[in-house]
Design goal:
Arc Repressor Mutant, subunit A; homodimer; three-stranded antiparallel beta sheet; 67% helix; 5 helices; DNA-binding
Chain lengths: 103, 103
DNA sequence: CGAACTGTTAACCATTTAGTGAACTGTAGC
DNA sequence: GCTACAGTTCACTAAATGGTTAACAGTTCG
């Protein structure tokens, strides 16, 4: 699932949609915003977000209401944070080593 | 730059390379590992990682030594963490609202 | 009912991506 | 000098991506 999350986030339009939805649920029309692309293009991006598990959709009359599936995004975030912890630790080791040498 | 970082991380092989490099610098041969793909394929993945600013390369004799450019990855990590903070806050608001209603 | 509205599907196109094998560049070491 | 080694570049393919317009499906409302 981490796989498809990163793929979903690899397009600027999709990231902007996620940014919008992080602030709360919205309809397709609302997330469409002012990207200079057609409705079918947005529709496809939403499909990618949905199939990757990043977004869910609830149909309400003629509106489709979109929400973030935060659990999915949490997984991807955790991967990044975990890597950061690892390379930060490494950096500290190097730092310590340099301090050691200065003495 | 956040753009290309996510794109760089959108392929499982490239993420595994990043995982390897998070633990410390390594040569091309070392990161190649046991993905079932040819050397040219790895070479291309490394090019993507390098051009996206995620990885740097220092040539030492006939070995190319790769390292993570952590600043670049920090940007992407920060984007994710920032979004998480936003949707977490939203979640708390909903939580509070539900508690409010239970009373 | 019929028109307007919200959104998707279908068919198509151009570009990018991910992979391949073969050939090449440069370094190491006998 | 020659061979082995580390890695890239080239030329090519197949599939995926991102976009388009045109047509469709369902909902709302006068």
């Amino acid at each position: 699932m981490v796989n498809s999350s990163f793929k979903a986030l690899s397009h600027p339009i999709r990231r902007q949609i996620v940014e919008r939805l992080a602030a709360g649920p919205a309809t397709v029309g609302e997330v469409t915003g002012d990207f200079g692309v057609s409705k079918p293009a947005i529709s496809k991006h939403l499909k990618v977000l949905e199939e990757s598990g990043v977004v869910t959709r609830v149909i309400d009359g003629r509106n489709h209401v979109l929400s973030l599936r935060t659990e999915t995004l949490d997984e991807a975030t955790d991967w990044m944070v975990r890597q950061r912890e690892i390379w930060t630790r490494l950096f500290d080791v190097v730092e310590d080593h340099l301090k050691e040498e200065q003495r």
